[in-house]
Amino acid sequence: MNEFYAGIKMLDFPEFNNGGFVEVEGLRDVPFEIKRIFYIFGEGNVGTVRGKHSNRKSEFVLFNVKGRSKVKTIDENGEEAIYELNKPNQAIYLPRMVWKEMYDFSRDSVLMVLTNEYYDSDEYIRNFDNFVDEIKNLTKNSTSSGTE
Questions:
Q1: What angle do CA 27, 29, 35 make, to 5 degrees?
Q2: 69 is catalytic
C-alpha cells in the first residue's frame, strides 16, 4: 500500500435535530476547501460502474445522501478495498492518486461528491496501467528524494 491509500478514511458528520439535518463544512468536516460538488443519481446507475479513474490533484469526499452505493479502491498491486456508503452522515475521504470505482447503486441512490479542485480533464488518469506507472514513478521519486 502506498502513502495515498494510507490516507483513505471514513468520516462521520454530526447529525442535528434528532437526525434530520447533516451539515458539512470545508476545512472543518472535510480536509480541504470545497471547490466543486456533483452528485450521481437515477435508476440508470443501477448495475453501472462509475468512476474507473484516478486524479492527480483532486481529493474527494463521497457520501450517499439517499440510498446506498459502494466504493472500491484498487492500489498499484491490485489490492482492493470496498466501502459501503448507506448513511447520509457517513462518508469516505479519498486522497489524490487513488483508483476509485463506484457501483452497486440502489434505485434511490444519490451519491454526493465534494472535491477540492475545479474540473480539469487533464488531471484524470482513466487507464489503470497508466495509473500504476504514475504511482510507481511517484513512489520511486519520493523514495529517492525523501519527499513526495
A1: 50
A2: no
